[in-house]
Amino acid sequence: MQFDRKDLSDAELIHIYRNILLPRLIEEKMLLLLRQGRISKWFSGIGQEAISVGAALAMDQDEWIMPLHRNLGVFTSRKMPLHKLFLQWQGSAEGYSKGRERSFHFGSPQHHICGMISHLGPQLAIADGVGLAYKLKDSKKASLAFTGDGGTSEGDFHEALNVAAVWDLPVIFVIENNGYGLSTPVNEQYRCEKLVDKAVGYGMQGVRIDGNNVLAVYDTIKGVREYCISNQKPYLIECMTFRMRGHEEASGTKYVPKALFEEWGGKDPVSNYEMFLLQQGVLNADSVNHIREEIKQSIEAELKVDEKIIIPDTQTELYDVYAHAHPLEGVRVIDNSDYHDDGSYAGSPEKRFIDAIKEGLSQSMQRNENLLLMGQDIAEYGGAFKITDGFVSEFGKQRVRNTPLCESAIVGSALGLSLEGFKSVMEMQFADFASVGFNQIVNNLAKIHYRWGQQADVVIRMPTGGGMGAGPFHSQSNEAWFTHTPGLKVVYPSTPMDAKGLLIAAVNDPNPVLFFEHKGLYRSVSGPVPDEYYSIDIGRARLVSEGSDLSIICYGAAVQWATEYGGQHPEISIDILDLRTLLPLDYEAIEASVRRTGKVLVLHEDCLTGGIGAEIGAWIAEHCFKLLDAPVMRCASLDTPVPFNMELEKNFMARSRLDDDVRRLLAF
Ligand SMILES: Cc1ncc(C[n+]2csc(CCOP(=O)(O)OP(=O)(O)O)c2C)c(N)n1
């Protein structure tokens, strides 16, 4: 192995030596603990340390790195205290994730390390978001994300590299090509000759290097970092390496030919570098022994076996699912007592649902200089529904960003922006397309605060619902995909007034909020909307009309159906409750409605099975049984995809069964 020290001083070479030795010696110790059952799962990076260490040392300490499961050297080179790392791996309450995450699946904002989720590829787009933040702040920094050879087959790899290229982001993508996925060899993983060949397809530069040569990795990444910052471009680096142990300790290495271990054993990144330093006279046998002993002792000294059993505290567990922010000062919060009985609000001008959303978004942009909008066709074109029409001229193209067609990468980028203190509102062109950004939403955004205390300050606008003959993929009600996911907030307004106030609240909320906007309401519903910048609390339902015969608990377009139905049937005294937020639910308001009527119909446009109505029905049965005069009933759409033909769609819709269901319930 040829090492080129370039202009590195002896002290710098020794510094690199200490850094590459540390993860090796930690691993040797951890493998012992693993055998003793002290730690649960271990992904070995033995043989690959030069990449983690070279990369982490080449970056500035305050530049974000997105490591994966084999990058112990990133954590150690960022000087994370060893005792806390050890506690982390033991699942201790005093580790980095309070015992909630295993192995290397945690981050530390203080160390600018973003914790991975198991799905691997999602790390890459987070680096895009961070790169975008650096670019917008002109902070002369770059971000760096890792992937394995296996991970390059994921769509997330493609999306992230493409976005970084199209947006000219200072992001370094590092492939650790160790020849295998879990057991899958690279010839069953991809067909190009070298993975770095993919760079040209994205319109970026790339290089393939010896990933076992720590000086080559360090020097390359230092240079690439400067290139990315001064040219404002991404870069792909393929590091050739080999994994000397199994995918994880339990999975073995039977599938790897023995000769490969011999070949790559000779290229060991630690011993080769050590030999180089000895040959150069930078170190001698004594100093090598001394450094090794010193590191071993520090490992022993810091290794505290946590004998304490975690005593679970349910309140803390639930509390940590969300980030908790102080209420904003100087923002008017409008609550239910501010409305007149007829639903009006102190002489405010009438506005359409769509205009209320537009106004809420625009005022949020004016108030929050750190707020960005992202989505397909939202810039000059103004978005599929024209909500952001005119925004580019007011706020500029940096803040109102057209995105390539890649929902997953944009949600991931939004999370990356949040790491650097930005807020973002992403427009899903249609809520249906959230399915291709699903993983980032439910696994990354939703879980990150609970896992390692990082907030995901992201709003995703979801134009939703049917009734327009738009067929199965432009009409779905998919809110229940998300109400089942702890960590998200799900908001679904039915009036212009609520839409504006709740959108402003969503932007100010540090948690990920899915903001459902029924497309059918955009231009068909108008109502009073104050001109001022105001907020409506997330998590509070609104009583639309008080009644005594039966409750209709609903949200979104169903509130309009219920109101219209009530108007047509003055002989029935209907208590209509507009939930407004589906996660978290306003159980107090639900109970109060049950108390008034004793008969409950939950009405929603979503399909019957597993809809939020099922949850509400179960909750009422469990908590309000004595208040009930009849079983809770649900009026929902058919358990079919949403059909295209308008007659079929009408039949699909819950609304077509509303009268029957009301009568059945009244007759009970
Ligand atoms: C989306 C997804 N599919 C499958 C897995 C299971 N899995 C974990 S690691 C791994 C192999 C990854 O290979 P590679 O990207 O080359 O990284 P390496 O482990 O070799 O460092 C697989 C299949 C996963 N974690 N996520």
What report would you give on this structure?
The chain has 668 residues and is α/β, with parallel strands linked by helices. It is built from 25 helices and 21 strands. The protein has a seven-stranded mixed sheet with strand order 9-8-10-11-13-12-19. It has a five-stranded parallel sheet with strand order 1-2-3-5-4, sandwiched between helices. A five-stranded mixed sheet has the order 16-18-17-20-21, sandwiched between helices. The protein is elongated and about 95 Å long. Bound molecules: thiamine diphosphate. The site of thiamine diphosphate has 15 residues, from loops. Thiamine diphosphate binds next to loops.
β-sheet strand percentage: 5-15%
The assigned structural class equals: alpha/beta
Spatial extent as radius of gyration:
28 Å
Helix-residue proportion: 25-40%
Counted by DSSP, the helix tally is 25
Give a quick account of the main beta sheet: strands, pairing sense, barrel closure. Answer: 7 strands, mixed
Low-confidence stretches: none
Bound molecules: thiamine diphosphate
The outline comes out as elongated
Strand arrangement within the widest β-sheet reads 9-8-10-11-13-12-19
DSSP, total strands: 21
Mean pLDDT: 96
Could you tell me how far the N terminus lies from the C terminus, measured between alpha carbons in angstroms? 84 Å
